[in-house]
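Figure 6 in text form: structure in, sequence out.
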């Protein structure tokens, strides 16, 4: 499986009682499919997966599958704290008809490299779906190191990694060590243009939920080797990306959706909505798009 394009880790809309608002989720999916998105990723951090119950998570997977049908690529975020739960989510997503999986480092436990390798090998053995790993050490506390990647070389369904470490040296090192074996997928939003310059062809970006066309414009130009146009598109998008990366990521993406007329609601607590100053600053940046 070769991933090319913009993949949106979609936000989870909530109503005033913090119940999933499936009517708005349907609107969001339709909006993204009409605006340059190559795939949808329910079950990601931007979708507040950590705050969903088991039943909600599976219901969300099924709803996205039913609504999107075969109109786009569907990647299920199946991370969990225990290997057995990741396997259960992975196998369920495969039965539902998902096309691939995204698997981050299990939260909180901070596994060693030996333990993380065993975890990933067990997940990969449990499913035939392509797997994209997710390296975000700032959030997970553990990096997907080269020891892990070396130990996965023999598993054909481990196809790539979403890199969100902000460490560009890993992008270069991956090219040297692995060539085309593992796809390097951008997860460090404000470095996207650098990723594309070094050959990445896909971007899993949380901000794509509220700015899909703007994300697509950067990648589309880069894939045509027009890096002058790609840089111009990135210049327009960069203030938003830097704002998202500065804190309150999920709240800001949700606010962007609201400004587009998609009433996705507030995040589920413990996250709180933006305060007035944060909201005004974000709105001013978003309106420049």
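Output sequence:
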């Amino acid at each position: 499986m070769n991933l090319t394009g913009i993949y949106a880790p979609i936000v989870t809309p909530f109503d005033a009682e913090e119940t999933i608002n499936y009517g708005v989720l349907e609107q969001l999916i339709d909006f993204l499919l009409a605006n340059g998105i190559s795939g949808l990723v329910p079950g990601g951090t931007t979708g507040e997966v950590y705050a969903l119950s088991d039943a909600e998570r599976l219901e969300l997977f099924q709803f996205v599958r039913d609504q999107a049908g075969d109109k786009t690529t569907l990647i299920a975020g199946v991370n969990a704290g225990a290997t057995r739960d990741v396997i259960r989510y992975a196998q369920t997503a495969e039965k539902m008809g998902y096309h691939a999986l995204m698997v981050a480092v299990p939260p909180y436990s901070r596994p060693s490299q030996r333990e993380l390798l065993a975890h990933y090998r067990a997940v990969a053995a449990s499913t035939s779906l392509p797997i994209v790993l997710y390296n975000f050490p700032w959030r997970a506390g553990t990096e997907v190191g080269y020891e892990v990647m070396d130990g996965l070389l023999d598993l054909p369904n481990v196809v790539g990694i979403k890199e969100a470490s902000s460490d560009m040296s890993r992008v270069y090192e991956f090219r040297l060590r692995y060539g085309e074996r593992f796809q390097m997928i951008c997860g460090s939003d404000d470095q996207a243009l650098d990723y594309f310059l070094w050959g990445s062809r896909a971007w899993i970006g949380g901000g794509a939920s509220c700015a899909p066309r703007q994300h697509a414009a950067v990648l589309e130009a880069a894939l045509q080797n027009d890096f002058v146009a790609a840089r111009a598109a990135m210049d327009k998008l960069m203030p938003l990306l830097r704002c998202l990366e500065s804190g309150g990521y999920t709240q800001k993406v949700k606010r962007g959706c609201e400004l587009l007329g998609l009433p996705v609601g507030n995040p589920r607590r413990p996250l709180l909505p933006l305060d007035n100053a944060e909201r005004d600053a974000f709105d001013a940046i978003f309106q420049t798009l």
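Caption detail: Residues 113 and 213 are 38 Å apart (CA to CA).
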